[in-house]
Amino acid sequence: MLFSLALALAAATAALATAPHSDAKFALTSIPSTPDARRTVVATSRASSGNNVKLFDYFNGTDLQWYGQLSLGTPLQNFTVVFDTGSVSLEVPGVACGAACANQRQFDPSKSSTFQDEDYNTTVTFGTGIGVDPVVGNNWEMDLAFVADVLVVGDINVPLGGFFLITNQTSTFLPDPFDGIMGLSPDMGDFFADAGLPAIFGMWFTPKSGKAEGAGELTLGGVDTTKFKEPLLYSPIVNDAWQPTSQGIFVNDKTTSTLNKTFPITFDSGTSNILFVEETALAIYNLISPDIVANPDEPGTFGIACDRIPTLPAVISIQFAGIPGQGSFNLTIPSSELSSGPFTNKPELCQTLINVSEGFNLIGLSLLKHYYTAWDINGTRMGFSPNGF
Ligand SMILES: *[C@@H]1O[C@H](CO)[C@@H](O)[C@H](O)[C@H]1NC(C)=O
Ligand SMILES: *[C@@H]1O[C@H](CO)[C@@H](O)[C@H](O)[C@H]1NC(C)=O
Ligand SMILES: *[C@@H]1O[C@H](CO)[C@@H](O)[C@H](O)[C@H]1NC(C)=O
Ligand SMILES: *[C@@H]1O[C@H](CO)[C@@H](O)[C@H](O)[C@H]1NC(C)=O
Ligand SMILES: *[C@@H]1O[C@H](CO)[C@@H](O)[C@H](O)[C@H]1NC(C)=O
Ligand SMILES: *[C@@H]1O[C@H](CO)[C@@H](O)[C@H](O)[C@H]1NC(C)=O
Ligand SMILES: *[C@@H]1O[C@H](CO)[C@@H](O)[C@H](O)[C@H]1NC(C)=O
Ligand SMILES: *[C@@H]1O[C@H](CO)[C@@H](O)[C@H](O)[C@H]1NC(C)=O
């Protein structure tokens, strides 16, 4: 019953993605823009080595969902959050949420001497869903209050950072294995400015069965050059989202007229696998095996008999535009990502890595864990170097 979510604000939509074969859901929404309540302040303490934040793989054996710690208030109250490149703000449960956030740590404003209420409340409603537990009406909703307080991530200290306290939420959120979400969309430039850091961060996730299994790291204000060897190759991003432009998808070196075209793809560290529009997903699956079929029990998902998985080559390469002066390059998802494991209700059927979405293309950890990634807000570009670990 573990799942993770991403308030994906890419193109003003929010994506709520889940771990494989869990109580799955995917949702879209838009949330009101943050009021102009963020303070621009000078960082009070910062050690360069402390810009690295350790990430933990929550789902042992899946390597698809990661979280880290941050702290809020004076004295500090600790929270675990998903660092989510698909969303734009920080949300943690507040004590006002009470039983509705019973499984999560709750921020207590009365215990912080530096807390400020910004007197602005809002609601996020998740709009469109697929999965075994679909979004229906307002069954995925969070009430939020905008506040400000000390924010510490790693050794970075923002004396007055704006964030949201969750004051109520529908019971659909109760199984969250982490407390909150810290958005790291390109709109988070204010956070880096408040922290006195360059507006760039690096992310390092590691595949299971690799040399560094279980290790993960977020670097704020730069990249950790000890975690990759080959120079980063950069692709420009568009639409104020982590959205480089794909120039074509190849499956085992083959493409089709459906796949050989130019379209933006969003990279989302809060999404476990991959979501593509139906025609793209079907075209990829057709090139892997005609026996990959939709699983009607979990709308949007596909699968194939588990005993077929080891025999199927499924190398997916996606070509991306390069920044000026640098050529296009491929990012490659190895065959080992084809299966995300058996479906709970049909153990002989293994879930394959791509879900069908309603109108957008999102890539998560299936690819991100195979590259060190640089997320360059100021440079409006993303960088990739193969993960040697
Ligand atoms: C994952 O495995 C590690 C080491 O075996 C263990 O310490 C940790 O508690 C596990 N985490 C979860 C969420 O099961
Ligand atoms: C918060 O986390 C830090 C670092 O892990 C730890 O030293 C501290 O004791 C924690 N504080 C609380 C109140 O749990
Ligand atoms: C926001 O919601 C909280 C918790 O429900 C409430 O105490 C507060 O009065 C609300 N603030 C505004 C400005 O509506
Ligand atoms: C795909 O759908 C399944 C079932 O609804 C879910 O478990 C999985 O997390 C979804 N994957 C993504 C990337 O949303
Ligand atoms: C919290 O949300 C639930 C719906 O999930 C609603 O029934 C309940 O009335 C809300 N509580 C408050 C205090 O707004
Ligand atoms: C932003 O990028 C420009 C050039 O691309 C550079 O001159 C400037 O120093 C950068 N600003 C910050 C805050 O990193
Ligand atoms: C990407 O991979 C495909 C298939 O292997 C190949 O045809 C294409 O030339 C590659 N693109 C680049 C820029 O290397
Ligand atoms: C892909 O499309 C480009 C331009 O539209 C074309 O030049 C190229 O031959 C196509 N490649 C394949 C393998 O179909």
Overall description:
This protein is mostly beta strands. The protein folds into two domains: 5-220, Beta Barrel (Cathepsin D, subunit A, domain 1); 225-386, Acid Proteases (Cathepsin D, subunit A, domain 1, Beta Barrel), CATH 2.40.70. It is built from three helices and 26 strands. The chain binds 2-acetamido-2-deoxy-beta-D-glucopyranose (NAG) (8 copies). One 2-acetamido-2-deoxy-beta-D-glucopyranose binds at residues 248, 255, 260.
Radius of gyration: 20 Å
Mean pLDDT, all residues: 82
Q: How do the strands of the widest beta sheet line up side by side? A: 1-11-10-25-26-12
Give unreliable regions as ranges.
Answer: 1-49, 127-136
Q: Helix fraction? A: under 10%
Overall CATH class of the largest domain = Mainly Beta
Instruction: Tell me the series of helices and strands, N- to C-terminal.
Output: EEEEEEEEEHEEEEEEEHEEEEEEEEHEE
Distance between the termini: 30 Å
Question: The CATH topology of the largest domain, please?
Answer: Cathepsin D, subunit A, domain 1
How much of the sequence is in beta strands?
A: 25-35%
The figure for the number of domains is: 2
Largest sheet: 6 strands, antiparallel
Question: Do you know the CATH architecture of the largest domain?
Answer: Beta Barrel
Pfam family, one: Asp
GO molecular function: aspartic-type endopeptidase activity
Active site: 84, 268
Keywords: Disulfide bond, Hydrolase, Protease, Signal
